[in-house]
Amino acid sequence: MCIRDRNDIVYLKRLERMRTEFLANVSHELRTPIFTVQGYIETLLNGALNDEKVNKYFLDKANHHTINLSNLLNDLIDISMIESGEMRMSFRYFNVNDYINQIVKEIMPLAEQKSIDLIYYPVKDGMQIFGDKGRLKQAFINLLTNAIKYTEHGKVEIFIEEEQKYAKIIIKDTGIGIPPGDINRIFERFYRVDKARSRAVGGTGLGLAIVKHIVEAHNSKIEVKSKPGIGSEFSFRLKK
Ligand code: ADP
Fold first, then answer.
1. Per-chain mean pLDDT for the chain
2. Among the atoms of ligand 1, which is closest to the Cα of residue 208?
3. Which pLDDT band, with edges at 50, 70 and 90, does 2 fall under?
4. Which stretch of 19-28, 158-167, 211-220 has the lowest confidence by average pLDDT?
């Protein structure tokens, strides 16, 4: 970019600040699981390995944190690819019922583990929507795993409302909900309402930022309505 005026300088400075903040966040997010795993391994080496009562517990904990670490790395790779403009999109029409049924089948074990009903209400047979199947799958999976992660009792439902030119996709849960003061920030990278809770369920704080990018790459907008203690509803429109 060629710098022309003060506005450009202000813009570049802001970009630089965002980059520095992002790096600081990434380093911090990486440090937590690495230090924790290190701690467990040291404890095991210092004698806990031979203590039948705790050795498996420590190994399970270390394993849990390495899973978090690999989730984080995968999300970081995705977000850097998306934000550097390397996300190549491949749009086409596809059958919506077949597509969502397949995703629901893949996510079902997660819901079953928590005794949550995961329900898709099919639309009329043969209805097609337009988008990048692979990218959209990632958005669906992020939204559905969040809905399951942040729900303790009840259900997660997927509806489609047919509009004239669009299909409005709605993912609704009966979970903990999002406080009004946080709702505008949840799509920011690394923003979480409750950090400890997000980490405990394997969250990275990047899932919704990735969803937002993918939905916007479809010329659409992700919307959210939520009531603490009642549940949340995420929605976006796709061309049909
Ligand atoms: P995380 O990996 O922490 O889940 P996300 O970017 O996917 O990160 O979501 C950001 C935050 O938004 C979460 O930490 C959580 O506080 C909140 N959130 C997202 N989805 C839901 C939901 N369905 N119900 C309640 N809170 C949610």
1. 94
2. 6
3. low
4. 19-28
Establish how many alpha carbons lie within 13 A of residue 196's alpha carbon, considering only the half-sphere containing its beta carbon: 0
Check if 232 has its Cβ closer than 6 Å to any atom of ligand 1.
Answer: yes
Angle at Cα 163 formed by Cα 211 and Cα 96, nearest 5°? Answer: 55
Can you tell me the distance from the alpha carbon of 124 to that of 50, in angstroms, rounded to the nearest whole number?
61
Tokens of 104: 């629901």
Buried b (16+ CB within 10 A) or exposed e, 8-40: eeeeeeeeeeeeeebeeebeebeeebeebbeeb
pLDDT tens-digit readout, 45-72 = 999 999 999 999 999 999 999 999 999 9
Structure token pair of residue 240: 């049909």
pLDDT tens across 177-187, in order? 999 999 999 99
Q: Tell me the best of 69, 78, 150 to mutate to test the pocket of ligand 1, counting ligand atoms within 8 Å of each CB and taking the most.
A: 150
Three-class secondary structure of residue 184 per DSSP: coil
Determine whether the shortest distance from the Cβ of 33 to ligand 1 is under 6 A: no
Atom of ligand 1 nearest to the CA of 177: 25
Say if ligand 1 is within 6 A of residue 231 CB.
no
